[in-house]
Amino acid sequence: MLGFFIFAVAFVTVLTLVVRLAGLRVRAELPDTNALMLTGIFVALVFAGWWFLTHGATIEQRVLSPLILPSPLEVLQAFPRLHLEQALVRSALKSFERVSIGFSLAAIVAVPLGVYMASFPPVAAFFRPLALVGAYVPIVVFIPLTLAWFGLNETQKIGFLFIGCFVALLPMVFKIISDVPRAFVDVAVTKGASQWQLVSQVLFPVAQADIWESLRAVYGVGWGWIILAEVVNAQQGLGYLISISERRGHTASIFAIIIVIVVIAVACDRLWRLGGRLLFPYKYI
């Protein structure tokens, strides 16, 4: 613990010195080329440190054992084995299916409920405990609960992802609708808008671009929970492959699967962003 504390303090100290000495300006515009260059430098430093800690012809010559941190080459070599022996692509598709179904079910319920809660105080008062669950109850608690409710089948995994996405999305939608300026409602009321029109033609249209961004964020979080969803009695899925690799001591395979999860999540995030640009171009002007 002391080592982590020292590292944290040293990291913040060095970062503060860099910011001060570099004379960085608050919220200054950064050209895209400079942003890409800085990102590339960070990635290069990470890979350089990774190579330094894992290079060596024998285990004795390495700073870290392959059981702790495999080398980049060992991680690359794990991909063919995962594909040929453990159906990596099929498991990735299964995980994608589970995340998408659980997220879709959560969005179908959480978005309308969040809109109604932010629009009508009695609805908010009635359902407020649901919003508190997402704020204070750790998501891991729902693993034994969903096992008790749904058993060891596919429904348990979808149910867990549904709950996880729902408790994350509901307060986000509630806040977005609540933050719509009162002036929009007042103007619509003076024009004779009904209560339903205030919701369907004022509050939701004004907030829909931000709701889309919330959906995008929660879908990405769903990929972070897929490992928990597939940790028990799964026959396919990326979480299942991680569990198998952990029991067999294949640390390189674990890293390879994590890379697959990150790549899929980033690709989906780019698609969500593209969809936002097409649906709400005014948001990106």
Describe the structure.
It is a single chain. This protein is mostly helical and 285 residues long. It has a single domain, classed as Orthogonal Bundle (MetI-like fold), CATH 1.10.3720. It has helices at 2-21, 32-54, 72-86, 88-119, 121-136, 142-150, 154-178, 182-190, 195-229, 238-248, 251-279. The chain is globular.
What are the main properties of this structure?
single chain; 285 residues; mainly alpha; MetI-like fold; 11 helices; globular
List the SSEs and their pairings.
Layout (H helix, E strand, L loop, with lengths): L1 H20 L10 H23 L17 H15 L1 H32 L1 H16 L5 H9 L3 H25 L3 H9 L4 H35 L8 H11 L2 H29 L6
Helix pairs in contact: 3-11, 4-5, 4-7, 4-9, 4-10, 5-7, 6-7, 7-9, 9-10, 9-11, 10-11
As a whole number of angstroms, the C-alpha radius of gyration is 23 Å
State the CATH superfamily name.
MetI-like
CATH class category: Mainly Alpha
Instruction: List low-pLDDT spans.
Output: none
The proportion of strand residues reads under 5%
Distance between the termini: 47 Å
State the helical fraction: over 70%
Specify the CATH architecture: Orthogonal Bundle
Question: How many discrete structural domains?
Answer: 1
Tell me, briefly, the overall form: globular
Write the CATH fold name: MetI-like fold
| Tally of individual helices | 11
Please identify the structural class as seen in this structure.
mainly alpha
Total beta strands: 0
- Strand and helix order: HHHHHHHHHHH
Q: Main beta sheet: strand number and arrangement?
A: none
Averaged pLDDT: 87
